[in-house]
Structures are given as structure tokens and as C-alpha cells.
């Protein structure tokens, strides 16, 4: 019996030893895991639990215009209010919520909820002006509240010129992050490095009073100097807005002004624009869903000059001319080389000239460009051939993005070369049935203006370290020769003729030789919408400016033709920009010194009466839609371009519809 008990006791002790060893082994394993595997993680968790961190937002770098003097975007010091509710007595929380509501304008109930939360940090208000935080400090002192409320330095973005260059500059979100334009593209450079305030807390998140706060200062972001010139941008925006309103452009418009010699974008204007200081505001936004509101905001922020494509129309004849001259297919002034019979047959399809009712007849290339005669450029496209033509499209940059330093850039939309037949090649040759972006088009023509080299556009020219003053220049990128200098000069010479005696007459600028090309195209197929444009280069003797005006769906009385709607805008803008740049005037135009006259109202008059009235002002009359001979005493003027009241030079044509 006793022996049996001893055996049982021994077995029990053995099991106890085994179990103890297992537990000890497990404890050792757990200690190893805690010490060597989870040690760093647990250390971080303990640090976070015992440390109260408050972020100090870095001040974003300043954005300047091309002069380096005008500030387009800057950050000012504001403050952020947070609370540590564990350090605020419960009986004072309602009182404090009321004070926050009165002084800071925050919602009382939402604030009280935050004060009652069992968390170490809650944000009450961000981006608060110092006048309000000083009032809060005064209230805290008067009411003996010393702990639990943190007032920390923060920054707020301001745009001194409100709407100016809004689609270029972009804006920031509430967290100081760039969301669009330059602010987004250069966010890493502009934003700097945030600082912080660290303070040890007890297990409940309360302050340990005897320990000081650790302050790590924020580092300011770098400054940017844009290529945008404040004055030139203002001029472009002024005349663009007037043009869009006067011509009732339902889909807005844009203007790009570029220095062809270094790629600098001197102005990039889009209408309608928006106020950078309140980018989320919409007119008439009542009773719309959040989805619809977001859609409207995205449309408002969209920089159509780089994100949207359009059919360039007759401005693209400059590209066809360049390719044909470069390939020695033609010359500028071979008299009678081409013949316009009102249209041309291509693979069984009759493609009309815009003036099919009164054909242009025999012409040189210069005259064809002045008249914007489609059949001539179709014939040139056929001689160039699609393979060679597509090589020039690639050289001029239409198959790729320009790499402008702005977000959201698109590229041209063309048929694959193997799908291009005779009809498709014909329409491409005079600028239809494909799409490009305005920035692609202006960059391509800049290649002609600078003597034949493709230079990428840039919008930022310098980065400055605001602490050290060290400067970093953004390099000018030359992608090589597109056409010869001789070809470029020939095309510029023809562009000068277009403005002097062709469809671009309304773009003339007193004292300067201006070259240009007008364009009109359909905005989509069977939409009954049009895009009207003008491409200009000045001064022709030494090009320093290339300008593209693009107006979307003009529906006003002035019609939708590039010569009557877009060309006058080019003349107005260049008339102010060229003198501002202090460019030397051309002697030829100084000697001519043609007088300006105001276009009279001739609608409702007979053609005979209108012709006589214009003759008195030394203006010429051109009938747009006359298919048959008619008695000028019996037909009446229905529409006129330019509209009454517009200032033009003597000997300019006024186009009418009857």
C-alpha cells in the first residue's frame, strides 16, 4: 500500500517537473521573442504611448514670375489649435467648447465631442489667423486654463493675384500638399520638411509637468521662378476673356505665348479661370450631388492648353508647307504652279475648297497659304507621301508629349500610318481629322520661328534654396533640327504675307512685321461646333514671340472664322506684348504707318451700299458665300466679319455673307 503511494507521488512529481520545464521553456521562448524579435516594435509602441507628437507644418517655397520680383504664390504663418482632453477638467469642457465656438467659429457640438474623447490629441481648428489665436490666448489667461490646449505654428497658402495664371500655378489642399498645376508638379521641392513638438506623457496621456517639450523646427521649401511674365500673362488673360465673351465662346478658350529661342512659356491663359484662394467654390452649385460637383470642379481646374486636343485646321498648313519646301517639292513663289478649281478629287471623293463657289484659280505656294486654299495642300500631301509626311509629324513632336513641366499633358491623336489612305492623307494635309494639343502646336511652330530646331517648352526656369540663396537653373532642352534654316525663313516669309494681305490681316500690329496663319475646324464630327484659332510669330525679322489663340465654339454674331474672330485677338495681344518686351520696331511698317479705322455697321444694307460705305473708309469688301453673280443693288448683307466697332487698319478686307 505504502509502496503504491510512493510510486504515485513520484509520478506526480515527475509530471510537475515536466510541466514546469515546459512552462519555463515557453517563458524563455517568449522572452526571446520580446527581446530580439518584437523588441524594436514594442519600443516604438511604448515611445508612441508615452510621447505626444504635434506636427509643425513647413512653409512652402514662394513662386515668382519670370522677373523674380512678382510673387504669384506664398505661404504665411497661421496657427493650428489642438487639445489633450486628458488634461482638461470635465467640468470645464462645455465652457471651453463655447469659447472655441465663439472665437474660432467652429461647431459647438462637434467640438464638445472632441473634448470628451479619451485620446491624447484632437484637432480643433487648422489655418487660424493670429488675430483669432491671440484672442484665444487672452481668454485662456483670463479663465486660468494653462494645460490641455496647444497652439502650434502652421502655414497657409496665399495667391496675391487671385485668378491670374490659375491653371498654371494650381493650388494646395488643407494639408499643404500641392493638388494641381505647378503646386502639384513641384510639390516635393516646394513643400520643405515638417517639424514637430515632442513631449512625454503619463500612461493616461496626461502631461508630465516637469519635463520640457522638444522642438524640432520645420525646414522651408525651395522657391521657384517661373517663365510666366506677370504683365504678359495679364495682357493675354484680358484679351482672351474679352474675346470669349464678345464671341460667345461656349467652351472657353486659351492663349499660349512662347519664346521660340529657349522654350520659355511667357503666358498660358485659359478661360474661364478660377480664384486660387477659393478653388472649391462653384457658381450656382445648389441642389447638385457631390458627384456632379466634383465633375464641375474637375472641368474648372482643367488646363485645356495642355490636357485637351483639337483639330488645328488651316494652321497645320504651316507644317505641310515646311515639309514640302524641305523636300524640294516646291518653292514659295513659282507663279501659277498650283490651280484651285474649287475642289479636288481624291480616291473618288470630292474635297472642296472653303471658297469652292469662287475658286482661287492659279496660285503660287505663298498665295495658296495666304488664301488658305485646301486643294493646294492636298496636292502637296500627295507629293510628300504618307511615309515621309509621318516622319515630319514625328520630327515636329506630334506623336509625343512636349514634356512641359505641368501635370496632365496629353499628346496628339493620329491614325496609325498603315491605316492612312489617300483620303486620310488629304485631310491631314490641311489640318483635319486628327487632333493635337495647343502646346504641341505652338511648340511645333516655334521650331519654324527659331530657325528649324525643336526646343521643349518649360514653365519653371529656376529653383532657389531660400536658406542659402543657391540657384539651380532648369536646362533648355534642344531636341535637334527639324527643318533647315532656309526652309524656316521661307515659311516665315509666307506667314508675313498671310498677315499683310491674306486671311490674317486682322492681326497686323502698327510698327511691327507679324507673321501668322488662321485656322477654323470642326470640334468633333457632326457637332455643329467649331474651333477657331490664330497662330502668330513676331517680329518676323527676329522672332521672339510665338502666340496661339484657340477659341472653342464661338457662337456670336462675328461667326467662327479664324480671320475674323481669332486673328484680331492676336493683333490686340501682340500690340501690347511687343512694346512691353521693348522689341525694336520694323522700319517697313513704320514707313507705311497705315491709319486705323472703326468697322461700321453694314448689316441690312445692300451689297452696293455696303461697298460704298467701306470704300469711304478705305476698306475692301469680300463676299464669302457668293455662288452666282447677283445684282449688288438687290442682295443684302446678312453678316459681317469683323463685327462693327472693331478697330482695323485701312485697306483691310471686311467679309460679308449675303
What is this entry, summarized?
The protein is α+β, with helices and mostly antiparallel strands. The protein has three domains: 53-226, Penicillin-binding protein 2a (Domain 2) (Alpha-Beta Complex), CATH 3.90.1310.10; 234-277 and 286-593, Beta-lactamase (3-Layer(aba) Sandwich); 594-658, Trypsin Inhibitor V, Chain A (2-Layer Sandwich), CATH 3.30.10.20.
Write up this protein:
The chain contains 22 helices and 26 strands. The strands form eight sheets. Strands 2, 3, 4, 5, 8, 16 and 17 form a seven-stranded mixed sheet that branches. It has three domains: 53-226, Penicillin-binding protein 2a (Domain 2); 234-277 and 286-593, DD-peptidase/beta-lactamase superfamily (Beta-lactamase, 3-Layer(aba) Sandwich); 594-658, Trypsin Inhibitor V, Chain A (2-Layer Sandwich), CATH 3.30.10. It is of the alpha+beta class and 658 residues long. Helix 14 (374-384) packs across helix 16 (422-429). Strand 20 (530-538) and strand 21 (545-552) form a beta hairpin. Helices cover 36% and strands 21% of the residues.
Look at the structure and give the mean pLDDT: 87
What percent of residues adopt helix (DSSP H or I)?
25-40%
Task: Give the name of the CATH architecture of the largest domain.
Answer: 3-Layer(aba) Sandwich
In CATH terms, the superfamily of the largest domain is DD-peptidase/beta-lactamase superfamily
How many structural domains are formed by the residues? 3
In terms of DSSP E residues, the strand content is: 15-25%
CATH topology tier name of the largest domain: Beta-lactamase
Number of helices: 22
Overall shape: elongated
Distance between the termini: 134 Å
Structural class by sheet pairing and helices: alpha+beta
